[in-house]
Write a structure and sequence with these properties.
280 residues; alpha/beta; Rossmann fold; 2 domains; 6-stranded parallel beta sheet; 12 strands; 37% helix; binds NADP nicotinamide-adenine-dinucleotide phosphate
Amino acid sequence: MNSLPAPKVCVIGYPIKHSRSPLIHNFWLKRYGISGTYEKREVAPEELAEFLRDLENNGFVGANVTLPHKESAFGLCDEVSDEARQLGAVNTLYQRDGRLIGHNTDGEGFLAALDQEAAGWDAPLRRAVVIGAGGAARALVFALLRRGAEEVAIVNRTLARSQEIAAQGGPRVTCHSLEDLPELLKTTDLLVNATSLGMVGQAPLVIDLAPLPPNAVVDDIVYVPLETDLLRQARERGLRCVGGLGMLLYQAVPGFRLWFGRTPEVTPELRALIEADIAG
Ligand code: NAP
């Protein structure tokens, strides 16, 4: 009897050495006893189109896409999901009827982490403040709008970048400079850092959290280090905190489900595995 070949998936980036996606997906493959593989593939920008065209012929049922290919891969898909279209970027690819479908799971991962780690964070969700207006911030803004935020206030160094998101997001998205923060924070339910500040090797994000209401949630999507200065300050003030590791883990769930047919769980054991890897 012929059996189907074990599904094969890869993560594509340039460079790809530091990707933690294989650790996550191979943990789940082992845990659920699924015979599939998940590997890293370093693909240079000039090789991306050919690599994706041959994805299925090379035996891959799908792929994750990371820097710097998220936007280019979007343009190479036969079809994209609504989430990917809003962002102009894909991080998850799969094949359906010989067509390459692109999806973006960053927003879903971000919301799932908040749901798991700060239950009730969105009731009410009158104002969310997102600091940053890069690729990640864009995913967060649209996810927060989908979740029903009355206002998503973007605070970014370069105003033009936040205005571009607001033009697409509509009247619930407002744009601000850093000087506006103290006033904004007084009536903020959720504060998110989506800049690269606070990452290892970068300056910290310095904000006075004093004006935040005591029931506010502070989320930093940076995950190296696991606890940024911003989160430490929030924790010391007694605010509920969410780090970036949850988003990293939950954004992987939809891809695994699509390729391997099972919804995987984010367990303390998986968290510990990735935390140990980050700690080096
Ligand atoms: P990006 O597109 O390069 O955007 C970087 C953002 O940071 C921009 O808003 C930029 O402001 C701001 N920024 C950088 N340096 C700054 C400085 N010195 N002062 C003020 N603002 C500064 O990056 P991205 O892809 O959106 O990623 C942003 C962060 O999210 C990274 O730390 C990344 O690791 C993290 N991330 C986490 C996850 C997760 O799963 N947890 C997923 C994706 C990303 P300007 O617009 O003014 O340049």
